[in-house]
Amino acid sequence: MKRFTGVAVGLLLPVVAWAQSPPVPAHPPGAAIASAHALATQAGMEVIRDGGNAFDAAVAVSAALSVVEPISSGLGGGGLWLLHDARTGRDVFVDGRETSPAAATPDKFLDKNGALDPNRAQNGPWSAGIPGLPALLVHVAEKYGKLPLTRSLAPAIRIARNGFPVYPRMAGGYQAKRAVMDRYPGTRAVFSPGGKPISTGETFRQPDLAKTLERLARQGFDGFYRGQTAQRLVAGVNAQGGQWTGQELASYRIKERDPIRFRYHGWDITTAPPVSSGGIALAQMLQILEPYDLKALPEAQRVHLVVESMRRAYRDRTFYLGDPDFVKVPQKLLTSADYAAGLRASINPDKATPSNLLSGAPTPLEDEETTHFSIIDAEGNRVGATQTVNLLYGSGLIPPGTGVLLNDEMDDFALKPGTPNAFGVMGYEANAPKPGKRMLSSMTPTFMESKDKVAVLGTPGGSRIITMVLLGILGYDDGLDARQVAALPRYHHQWLPDVIDAEPGAISADAGKALQAMGHAIDLPPAQAEGGRGSSHVWGNLQTVEWDKRSNRLQGGTDPRNEVGKADVITQP
């Protein structure tokens, strides 16, 4: 009887397997884009409808964001993009991070007493690295796109020339940084034309930026890094006391790097290598958490384990990570399952590990004023792109005649080892500035793929980027869809300071009390905290798209915290 049953089951297995697992479609049914501004998403869809692929759309979205989100990113900044080429099956990480000018040696950022000068590190000409985003746009368009750059940049040029409505975050950010931005004639001409500062609802036009984009579209790399634009950038920086050279601009180069890959609960994770710190940290955290059934655990226990994984990954981030062209990063060791197992073994399941027992010093950060977008197209190409000017409106400096708001990424370097930067944190030799070196970043564009689903995700948020992407991955693993993942409440721990920071609703009051009993310091929102200042803010602006292979359905998720973001899907007939 048992033998007969075994044979019968064996004969039925192919039929049952076919019934439960219908053929997976070879390609998505259309395209999906999620970005931080509706006009940028529309720009990408416009290019897709005109015959472009995901890479052309990414150029269009990125350039449009450079126009409509100057508070977060732009041609004067940089970006880290993760690409999947469906034709070849290749994943590639495109590094368009800014580089250090040769003159920007650490001593240039010290005051007369030898202390770090925060104003010079965060504002004006000395704070700016050589921009990488324009070269990134040209590189992706020429190597991976189907359309000419003139077509992909057309929406951004149109928006810059015709204008768009100023939104509250943009106007509020300008008021917050106006004292710095009004120092510079080129910036005043754009943000306070005729002495009248921009305000919510009015039309914001940038004719100089439109002309800069037109030169980039016509001439490619040389349209920004040589010729008229380059001359105006160098003249504008140096007129304010900086020391850029035309040769530094002309010698900027994009780097293509191999992404970091690992497995988690049946998912293939592809993510950012150094100069991003995110991929190594994700590999460590997720491999630490791999053996646990997090969904089945009580809330406090789940948060405890996730926080302990964050604590250990961020400690390693501080000491080992920097530009791999200048620093030997032990990537193979840090991303290995055996190393993660050793870190896991040091976790007490019932008690917090005080960060001061994991010896060292605090982590260098990147500010929240960054942006991300995610794209999937009908061929199966994918783009996860994060770009930034660092702090609010970057350096605040627009060289006259360019419309290009320059970054303040030099503050992401460890300008004086052991001295806190803008965020009260420190960095060390691995992230010290050198001519042409790229500063450490937290930007973490990421792909997830299982037998049933493909997802692209990423976010701004400074040092919190990595933990937000982690929580997004855990959300997809729990069965959430793109909209639910984008809306997930967030919590964060970065080793030092030794405290859990939490958004409203991220951790229940009961779980908070249980975590405190374990020895965790926790910064709960005021309504949940019984003492202390509490955290009332939300953070991040996660943008994600997914392709559910089982239903052959595309979906985009844009962060509900963002007032102007948009996710859109088009289905091909």
Short description:
The protein has helices spanning 2-20, 38-49, 54-68, 118-122, 133-144, 149-152, 154-162, 168-181, 185-191, 207-219, 222-225, 227-239, 246-250, 278-289, 299-320, 331-334, 337-345, 464-477, 482-487, 509-517, and strands spanning 30-35, 78-85, 90-96, 164-165, 203-204, 255-257, 260-264, 267-271, 370-376, 382-388, 446-449, 453-458, 491-492, 500-502, 522-523, 543-548, 553-558, 566-571. It is α+β, with helices and mostly antiparallel strands and 573 residues long.
Shape: globular
Largest sheet: 7 strands, antiparallel
Amino-to-carboxy terminus distance: 53 Å
CATH architecture of the largest domain: Orthogonal Bundle
Number of domains: 2
Features:
six-stranded antiparallel beta sheet; globular; alpha+beta; 15% strand; 20 helices; seven-stranded antiparallel beta sheet; 573 residues; 2 domains
How would you describe this protein?
The chain has 573 residues and is an alpha+beta fold. It has 2 domains: 214 residues, no CATH class; 230 residues, Serum Albumin, Chain A, Domain 1. It has 20 helices and 18 strands. The protein has a 7-stranded antiparallel sheet, with helices on one face. It has a 6-stranded antiparallel sheet with strand order 7-8-11-12-16-17. The radius of gyration is 24 Å and the shape is globular. The N and C termini lie far apart (53 Å).
